[in-house]
Amino acid sequence: MPIVTPAAVRKQIKSGNTDPLYLLLGEDDVEKSALAAEFAEIVDEGLRAFNVERIPAGDMTSGDRLVDGVGALVSAVRTLPMMVPRRVVTVTQAEMLLVPKRESEAATRALDELESLLKNPEPQTTLVFVAGTLDKRSRMYKQLLKYASVVECGTIEDQADAERWVRTRVAAAGAEIEPLAARRLAERAGADVRRLRGEVDRLLLYALGQKKITVDDVREVAGPAALQDDWAMPNAIESGNGAEALKQLALMMDSGAPPEKILGQLGWLVRAKFPAIAPGHLAAAVARVFETDLALKRSAGDPRILLERLVVELCSRGIRRETRVGS
Fold it and tell me: Based on the number of CB atoms within 10 Å of its own CB, is 101 exposed (0-12), middle (13-18) or buried (19 or more)?
């Protein structure tokens, strides 16, 4: 079965058309818990008490307990749903069940029974395993990889996913964040979950004791906007989009990119692309890159201003040869 993203699983939940088996993995416990809880939305709220079951596997530390736990799990999965099309069974701390710490004859029997369930799942039940780190060489992981949809939690696909991640993280801390504040924070951090986690943790510390986090709070503590694409600036110049090129230049400089690195990208762009997109301006563009390089080395102006001027000229193709600094 394919490895799927949390966003893809949420679409399945919303449509009500879920797979029979899921394995939620990853170090992001908040994301895993939130996604696991969302499976209950398959069942009408008034009927969840009869059709949504949660089985903790943390105490399944011996062979006999494994046998009892797997027996209870199979019984829960094979129970027919009541007045709804599907029921949901969630196994938390599933690593204890899937990769027992102690090998024994009883543990082997339990895993045999569990494997039979995976090979022949109940079509009217959605079974969700929520696990921490699993040994990918283990027997049950290989079986789940074959029969279940494996979900890597802690990945963010797009802006909407990042905003939802922020709201979930803040809610888990017992607070609420304004929609616009979540959007601004997501725009700043981008799809980098490590940076997003750091930004949210810093925001929660700053707003400690507040019930609602506002846009002003985000503005006070959020770092500079994240660069989404290292080559967004050259791509914007190639298409002649000056506003986007300047925006991406600002993001690069705010994120700490050395001016020399940025100039290197511009030099590559001129050498590699201008012969095709602006052959009449090639010689002048090469000269302007050289002049800007000389100005940076001699500290003959603010690096940001020097690079902004070069970017504007390259975008407009209105390049003229200037007198070199110091000549």
Answer: exposed
Same domain, 272 and 148: no
Tell me the pLDDT tens digit for each residue of 193-229.
Answer: 777 888 888 888 888 888 999 998 888 877 555 555 6
Task: Identify whether 111 is part of a domain.
Answer: yes
Say whether both 192 and 124 belong to one domain: no
Residue-wise pLDDT for 118-170, tens only, equals 999 999 999 999 998 788 888 899 999 999 999 988 777 778 888 988 998 89
- Is residue 148 included in any domain, yes or no? yes
Distance between CA atoms of 105 and 127, rounded to whole angstroms? 26
Total H helices, total E strands in the chain: 16, 8
**Domain with 254 in it:** 232-316
Q: Which parts of the chain are beta strand (E)?
A: 3-4, 21-25, 52-56, 87-92, 125-130, 149-152, 176-177, 212-213
The DSSP annotation for 249-286 comes to: HHHHHHTT--HHHHHHHHHHHHHHHHHHH-GGGHHHHH
- Quote the distance between the C-alpha of residue 221 and its chain's center: 21
The angle formed by the CA atoms of residues 37, 41 and 47, to the nearest 5 degrees, is 110
Statement to judge: residues 312 and 258 lie in one domain? yes
What is the dihedral sign for C-alpha 249, 254, 256, 259?
positive
How far apart, in whole angstroms, are the C-alpha atoms of residue 130 and residue 91? 6
Provide the CATH number for the domain around residue 177. 1.10.8.60
Residue 73, number of CB atoms within 10 A of its CB: 24
Total number of domains in the chain: 3
Do residues 138 and 169 both lie within one domain?
no
3-state secondary structure of 150: strand
Q: Write out the two tokens for 135.
A: 């040994």
